[in-house]
Specification:
The structure is a single chain. By secondary structure, the protein is α+β, with helices and mostly antiparallel strands. It has 2 domains: 79 residues, no CATH class; 178 residues, tt1808, chain A (Alpha-Beta Complex). It is 27% helix and 28% strand. The chain is built from 7 helices and 16 strands. The strands form 3 sheets. Strands 1, 6, 9, 10, 11, 12, 13 and 14 form an 8-stranded mixed sheet that branches. A 6-stranded mixed sheet has the order 2-3-5-4-8-7, sandwiched between helices. Strands 15-16 form a two-stranded antiparallel ribbon. Strand 11 and strand 12 form a beta hairpin. The longest helix is centred in the middle third of the chain and has 18 residues. 38% of the residues are buried.
């Protein structure tokens, strides 16, 4: 799929399009030759990623169908390697690996905290099922969301998955979004993406939905660091982040306190500050604040 310009708000959703083989050249390709080779590559490329702004946190491996099915089978999987696997396609004979990175983990933890804070006044923070490290499989391909949420009764996967990337290109995140919003694959209602800029304190959060066989960006939020101030300040545009109640829980609200989730400017700023602190851009206190909902 062609790279989507940052100003574009939608693109065609072709469920039969390439999933992994058309990822950008910045993502290095290897042929899988066993565990020892895998860990050697992972160690080398992780060090290279941390030292350079022109590298990707993802690695793409070619392997036979049986190897891929074993890696992603919860009854057979080699959990040591499987925990790094992000996506796979047995038809393309490819699987994608994500490097273990601190800012990535911070982003998932903090976003989960924000979702639960928004649900607490509704009394629904424990009505939610979380999807950390759980493989969701379609006919020939599958993905492990960076995180995800949905009602506890939903059997297959998250209704709202979250995908995170450091890459300068949007191609990887677009591929993720297409998987999650495809009814034959992830079958999610909404997909959230969070893009962390590796070279400067800048974060973009986007909300994607499927409308009339097109994938549509329904919201974009930018978080940047204000310059020329004695004290660093987070600037948030496009807030609040809104997650429709019915999309998350697969039902309509039944009482007044049940409503769309809104994550306000202050909490989004705290999210950004936590990620930037992990990256080495310290901005002061990063505790996610509570807000008065009355």
């Amino acid at each position: 799929m062609a790279e989507m310009p940052e100003h574009q708000g939608s693109y065609d959703s072709d469920p039969d399009g390439a999933f992994l083989k058309d990822l950008p050249p910045l993502i290095k390709r290897y042929t899988f030759q066993g565990k020892e080779q895998f860990y050697d590559i992972l160690e080398t490329e992780t060090a290279r990623f941390e030292a350079s702004a022109d590298t990707s946190e993802f690695l793409l491996f070619h392997a036979n169908k049986e190897t891929i099915e074993t890696l992603f089978d919860p009854l057979k999987e080699d959990t040591d390697i499987a925990k790094f696997c992000s996506s796979f396609d047995t038809n393309e004979r490819l699987f994608l690996v994500s490097m273990p990175l601190g800012p990535h983990n911070t982003a998932t933890d903090e976003m989960n905290s924000l979702i639960r804070k928004a649900l607490r006044p509704m009394g629904l923070d424990y009505a939610l099922r979380e999807y950390p490290g759980i493989t969701v499989q379609g006919e020939s391909r599958g993905k492990v969301p960076d995180y995800g949420w949905g009602p506890k009764r939903r059997p297959r996967g998250p209704s709202v998955p979250l995908e995170i990337a450091f890459s300068e290109s949007d191609s990887k995140l677009n591929s993720d979004v297409r998987f999650w919003l495809n009814p034959d694959d992830g079958n999610a209602d909404i997909c959230l993406t969070l893009r962390i800029n590796k070279s400067r304190p800048e974060i973009r959060v986007e909300k994607w939905e499927r409308q009339n066989n097109r994938i549509h960006r329904s919201q974009a939020i930018w978080m940047t660091k204000e310059r020329n101030h004695a004290k660093a300040e987070v600037i948030v545009t496009g807030h609040p982040l809104i997650i429709p109640f019915d999309a998350l829980f697969h039902r309509q609200p039944v009482e007044p306190r049940e409503k769309d989730l809104e994550i306000p400017e202050q909490q989004l700023g705290a999210l950004a500050a936590s990620i930037w602190e992990e990256q080495g851009w310290y901005l002061g206190s990063t505790e996610i604040p509570d807000i008065d909902t009355h």
